[in-house]
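Key idea: predict the complex, not the pieces.
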Amino acid sequence: MVELVEIINVGLFAATLRMATPIAYGALGGIFSERAGVVNIGLEGMMLTGAFTGVVASQRSGSAWFGVLAAIAVGGLLGLLHGVITVRFAGNQIVSGTGINIFALGFTGYMSSAVWGSRGGSTGDVPGLSAISIPLLKDIPIIGGIIGEHTPLVYLMIIITVVSYIALFKTPFGLRIRAVGERPDAADTAGINVYKTKYLCVIISGMLAGLAGAFLSLGHLNLFAWGMTDGRGFIALAAMIFGKWMPFGALGASVMFGFADALQMRLQGLEELRILPPQIFIAIPYILTVAVLAGVVGRAIPPSNYKPYVKE
Amino acid sequence: MRSITKTFPGVVANDKIDFVVEKGEIHGLLGENGAGKTVLMNILYGLYKPDDGKIVVDGKEVDIDSPRAALDLGIGMVHQHFMVVPSLTVMENIVLGREPKKNGILLDTEKALRDVKDFCDRYRLEVDLKAPMLSLPVGVQQRVEILKALYRGANILILDEPTSVLTPQEVQELFKAVQALKQQGKTVVFISHKLREVLAICDRITVLRRGRVVETVEAAETSLSELARMMVGREIHFMFDKKQPENQRVVLKVENVEAVDDRGLPALKDIGFDVRSSEILGIAGVEGNGQTELVEALAGVRKVTAGRILLNDNDVTKASSGKRIQLGASTVPEDRHKRGLIMDFSVMENIILGSHDQPPFAKGLIRTNIKEVLSDAEKLMDSLHLGSRVRINIREVLSGAKMLVASLILGSRGKPTSAKGFVRLDIKQASDYARRLIEEFSIKTPDKDTPAQHLSGGTQQRVVLAREFSRNPKLIIASQPTRGLDIGATEYVRGKLVEMRNHGCAVLLISADLDEIWVLSDRIAVIYEGRIVAVKDPKKTNESELGLLMAGGKSD
Amino acid sequence: MANLTELKRKVSLKVGGLLRRLLRELKASVPKAVPQIIAILLAFVVGAITLLLTGYSPLEAYGAMLTGAFGDTFGIGQTFTQATPIIFTALAFLFAYKCGLFNIGAEGQFLIGAFTAALVGISFGGLPFFIHIPLALIAGALGGAAWGFIPAVLKAQRGAHEVITTMMLSYVALYLTSYMVNYPFKAPGMVAQTVLIFPSAELPRILQPTQLSASIFLAVLLAVLTQYTLCRTTIGYEVRAIGLNPSAAESGGISIKKGMIMALTISGAIAGLGGAGEVLGTHRRFIESFSPGYGWDGLAVALVGGLHPVGILLASVLFGALRSGGMTMTRVTHVPYDIGSILQALVILFVAAPMLIRYLLKRGGIKWWNS
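Result:
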């Protein structure tokens, strides 16, 4: 008989936080973009490209942190691309995002072959990010085990969540973002540069997505596998909606999804449950996403309108 | 502004306009809808670029390419459709774009509040700074807009149709505020098509007609009729021939209806009235008192939370829009772009909207109601029986079976309309019908397949009318039917409404234009805060009494 | 006999008229196709640059693709075989799009439809082919329809964004079918696949020795049907109305919820039929991961095809060629196969912004007439 404590233990919750991190980054990126009025379906592609870039850069340079920076840069570039298509050329946001996703899959596969000879993923050693432990925090019973020791990017995620909240609701910058997203014409007459704001936000979302990808590949696996994001970009969007486009809400939702992910992995490993096929477990996060969108959301009204703003 | 010219596709909006405003005056810019007033001011505010001409401010020639540039020059604008961000607070809306900063990054809320309060006191404009915009009434929102312009250092304030959303009392308050602005040395440009108001408040008036300046006059030296003549170019008299109604029945009965608006706030509160055949009931009221929601509730696109709506004694409170169309209700919506027409559809496709799933436009597998289905099934049974002795009429059997299968697949609630079913459109019938209506209503279009967006506003409205009136409705709900139309189109629409009334139709007219209500209605109801507060005979009341009622006052 | 000649005359008149109309429409749509054609060209140019930057020769690569796709019978057969399922998924995307909905989960609906068709195909041994085949096809359509129905209802009733729900359900479909074919329905042996379907359920091969089957006829028929439904039936009218202006549609008595549900469900059914076609015609069984992403290709093809069935047919041949030619290209020149996906994505991105094309043309000094 399985001891419940074998499943539900400190390790599970620590893993939850780890699994939640890429989703949270993605969700935060999504919040910035959508609050400015640009739907970013391409988070998935930006994440994947970030994961790839991080590994390549890390391997070539020997520094994982350089890989992270490269991933952020590339994510930002893709964000810029999305921005150019949707803001400057008033292209359809969903089509553009989907295009970026398909591009990422193809591009990373292609470059994988070019760099490592196989489209499946990276070969050879990849310097990864090592975990750090926070001295005092680690020693607190139970909680210490959960949050005491993680890759710095996990802690960064929490910091960025707080920063995002402050930025959006306590600074003029955030005020303008919200105005631009909700009533670009009003923002325009108030003298705000609508285009610049949208560009900025979509680039930020790309950078955060790239960061998410970097965490995914360099954070604890230290490799790149084709398609390794596996839909997390979309789950991030669901987390954003579930969190009602608020940073802390999105964080909470991401933790929930992270929990599902962590749980699924643990359940898979259990002897007793080996009769059940792995597919059931793997599918949990996706089913959960659909359930979330179906149940909680009801009529989730996004905080902005998505029509491209075309000035006379 | 000298010799300003601006053209849009197909239209010369401003044609070599000379417009001069002196410092410290209240200058009225008068003209009908479409005369070019807003375009001219948008150029001044940097939202449009003129094709030709120049602008001189304080003696210096300037090039205004954005609202920011305009604001830098001290030109501020309060638009007809407020440029407010609903979810932000009043204070946030006002400081947007010029936010005071703390430590360089954070928003200094306290300073913002202090600064804005300063302005409020100086110009005697009272507002609750911490309230979210969307909870405020329209008159207050307008005050916020004015404050916004002042906060940015505007010395020249352009007010675009400021009174279209105000009650007569609120208009008086606005006038007081404008006078206060003048006393503080500000210059005001007052754009309007309302003769009386412009004459009352302005020092000088410039009249525009069809994109050109007619004349600039001193308010003290002109009169209402002179201004009207300048504005329109001819005497307007629309007198309509109204038949005496006979055998009037109640067609529409609204009882204790309640509904909420898009924000969840109550829009209709225990509203009740009725409309009889062969009459036009005009509902007068300032925009925002529930008219939009009323029309939507009657049309079947907004849920009613209490009360009943009866159409010719049928309870349609919960009926779908399609059902109501079936029962004889036609709606001319207030926004033909949003609810009236599908711009990308052709004229023909728009004309059959609402009847597209009915014969004669739909044929093939047709839904019938349950009684017909059963009788068809019986006939089918009979024909099979006969088949053993008499030669089976294969066609009959097949059509009977088709009917049965169709209603089995498509459900059995007996409603003759639905989206289900691969029912064919009879293009020939639709085309013939469309051509007929195009001629009947003089719809100016190259052909029936032209997309609706290529038509002019007046023509588009004709398409809507053609569609709605040709269904032989028992009830017509006309909401702001002449909004945005020129004189000719307006006359046509009003004439048509009277025509339908004379033919026995019940017409519910909702309009923000009091003159329109006056001219057309047999009875006038006043709506205020979601209720009907009075029903009057136009012959027995006057404008000030109506104005008072529209503002929530009580008449004796 | 007088009757027969009369009949022949009437028929030929009708057919002549139809052909003439078809030609007229084709001629009219050519100028409209300019942005798509330019998008394709641009994509190939950018693709060429990518190849150069990574040390391959674009001429070699594209050349190998071309010969691989159209060089011999086998190549042509492969091209059209690959094109067929893409036609289905593209039509599926198109139908939902006309209603304003983005069905990016066509891949999942495709898989489910494929599996349900396979189920019928491997059961019911004694049926004659003219019952077995339609039955299997219907099963495929119903499976896809069900998979489209779920997000449809969620969208209509709960406002759940169909982009995310269809995407998630795609993953679920992937794992669900993977489970099915690894456990309950696994055929003996190492490969995760079902047993072969009964011969009575097979769609005939039409071009030996390739895998091209009658499902391509089904695809073309469906393209015609889709166009007809959209333009000549009430449900098509309502779907388009909802897509263009939901408020006006609602005022015109159209039920938006029902319309949306119908649109997504039908969209799923079309994709499911595509899956059925693949199982019954090409593979004759359900194999795990048999779809190299036909759902995604469908999206690209729908866009490149200018969201019109005729364009879709043409564009699907292009993408089919990319796939079949791509395999040859990789074998011969060792250029990674993924260049095809990159080209596909580039086309999507260029097509996403028509104004971009106009801008580039202006920059290049080419005048482009307004479509």
